[in-house]
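REVIEWER CHECKLIST
Item 1: Sequence provided? yes
Item 2: Single chain? yes
Item 3: Sequence as submitted:
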Amino acid sequence: MDLKKPYKTMLELSKQYGPVFKIQLGLQKIVVLTGYEAIQEALVNKADVFAERASIPIFDEVSQDFGVTFSHGENWRVMRRFMLTTLRDYGMGKRSMESRIAEECNVLVKKFESYKGKPFEFRRIMTAAVGNIIVSILLGKRYDYEDPRFIKLLSLATENASLMGSPGVQLYNMFPMFGFLFGARKKAVQNRRELNAFVNENLIQCLNILDENDTRNFIDSYLVQQQQKIQNNGYFHHKNLVESGTNLFLAGIETISSTLFWAFTLMMKYPLIQKKIQEEITNVIGYAQSRAEHRTKMPYTDAVIHEVQRYADVLPLSLPHATTVDVNFKGYFIPRGTQVIPLLTSVLHDESQWERPYDFYPEHFLNTEGQFVKRNAFLPFSAGKRACPGETLAKTELFMFLTNVLQRFTLQPAPGLSKEDLDMTRAVGLTTPPKTYTLCALPHF
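Item 4: Structure as written out by the authors:
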């Protein structure tokens, strides 16, 4: 097993053993599902059967069965319902959220302008921009990109995404009794405590100025729900709030920022594709600021963003599921409580579903007339009961950040680097961003 990139080993095994097979990693017995057909059957057609979250030592240690991402049973159902409702209340898919993203795009563009076409490292800036969107939902405010506390928080989130997929943490998951030997596990737990402490501290601030008739953010809404003891079923306690807030912060930053890193790197790698997006921006938006409503009028840009998500494949393993009951699936008996990995990378690169699965090819999402077409095997947000609750928000962010930047700038590798030098190797981690490059943002006007 390649512990740096276990999904690669699983893909190799699927060629030999088919779309459903079992592996044993240490003490863990795992059923791996590969390919669009098997994963669609499990997560969508048998959604209730595969809706549980597997019990994984590192996730159990950091979350303790609270929050949304790694919780189980009724706690998960209650917290997920609250999170979906609250995200909708704070504008997911509405003009108010779009306005927040538009404001952040303006700050980002000014930051890019400040480099006057000279090379700069764009990742920290992009992570901060994406981070501010989720902070605005969580706390109702934004941070300056240079705020040392914000920089520290973002680095904790990024580091943990890397650590959670590292060989050290994987070994800990296989042999939890030897956890004290693995420095990666210790560091991941420590980072998580610091992130929880940040949510906790801001929670107290919100509590001091809470107005039940004027809730301004996710924490406010939770505190109001907490006070309605008859309706809260005992689930709206302090630990669930801290863990849900941390879940929102981590999930809202890492996958979106990694996808945008890929988008920018691919724009430098394929300047003709970048130019076609800019032409579409000029024709549809002109000099106005891009809004989510423009996406339906911009099929090529929409296709490119979808292809970035498919090609980048930033969560190749998905998060592990578990069966809620005994089930017969594709001719195999899978007992209740079995850990199941729906290998998302195998869907996004399924040779039976994509014409050029290993190439960056926006035409996957365009018909012969150049109109956008949906593809069933496009599952970067997973599917079924455990699908990403922030999908709508993520799509709006990806579109608005990319179009606002490309409307004003052409992205090029720093001097001394050619587009051929750009390495498309994925980083090791739970999420898989590309290698870091400095870029030049050359103004259009």
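Item 5: Key structural point noted by reviewer: The CA atoms of residues 19 and 34 lie 5 Å apart.
Item 6: Recommendation: ____
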